[in-house]
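Hi! If you just cloned this repository, the fastest way to understand the data is to look at a raw example. We've pasted two of them here, unedited. The first protein comes first, obviously.
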Amino acid sequence: MEQFTEFFDKGGPVLIVIVVVFFVGLFIFFERLFYLLRIKARLSQSTSQAVSIVSQGSLTQLRQKFSKLNDPFSRSMVKLVDDMKSGQLIDKDHLESIHEDSVSKLANGMRLLGTTTSVSPLLGFLGTTTGMVKIFAKIREVGGLREQAQFAGGISEALYTTVAGLISAITLTILSNILWELIERYEVESREAFHKVAGLVLEARRKGAQV
């Protein structure tokens, strides 16, 4: 505990801000990560359930089943049935539009995560600047560099905040790229699943299934 206290004392107030920004980024990462893993694991099961329901010719039951779930595939199913019920022309472009709308919310929080990534090195450079200001202020106060130990506080603040800001930015950049990769993979898999079920839905509709 004393080491952490000493670390923050040397880094100054800017270092505290960097740590707060870093943990905000970590929170966003883990929240998005668990959500993506959860909906990805559910996708295969949801697809099988949708195929089973459509094969029974009950499109109303399809909507009732997936209106209770909150994931892109489920939202796509509900939107598809609603559009068919309202008489909307369902073609390839419209199906793609439904899918794009449903997956658009996957990026929620990513802009804030990107902001924490971009701000971290800037805060580090800010700490460097404030540390250097303290050094020069001390030089002017004592009239030279006769007592180098007096400048240690400013030097520590300059170095600690720079290192902390860069470490935070590098870490959050890696984590952000991991999330984007997971999002892109889910979009591809959910698009395939949605178009597969949508084709069955349209075929069932042509055969007289009610919505």
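Ok, and the second one:
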Amino acid sequence: MTEVHDFPSIPAKILLPIDFSSSSRAAFEMAADLALHFHAELHLVHVIPAFPTTTFRDFAPEEAFLQEARTHAEQRLAKCQAVLASRGVSSSFSVETGNDVVENIMNVIEREHIDMVVISTHGLSGWHPLVFGSIAEKILKLVQCPLLLLHSAKPKGGKSPKEGASDFGAFENVDSKSISTEL
């Protein structure tokens, strides 16, 4: 008779930090496949950068901007969740707000009891990651669970992945019939 073992290395909950760029689209596909394979729940997280507090409240209506960004992110994540459901993948999502994206992600890992993280790089080189650091690199140094780091190709034309409207809207029109082409 075959004995069944409970392997702690098989993830029950996978985290995918997502910024709606083309590189996070590829990570979405990989994370969905892994979640399906392991019968794991996939938790999507999007971090909205918060503005530093200022005394110029009339200059930048922070609350209105943050609420609009949160609503927009929640709508996009709900579409991603519908795609995952159509594939048979259990999922959840959260939208976090903060000045330190890495800290937000690490808090979600702890709060959600994450067993594995799938994260993509943006394929940037040169001075930007050197000066500002890489979120993926920082997560790599801090995370205590298995991590799958997907290296994306360098963006064409030297633009960062967030500069192109098509990248930012990559998850805008998601439906379950065209998963590969829409994501």
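That's it. A detail worth noticing about the second one: The domain at 13-182 is CATH 3.40.50.620 (Rossmann fold).
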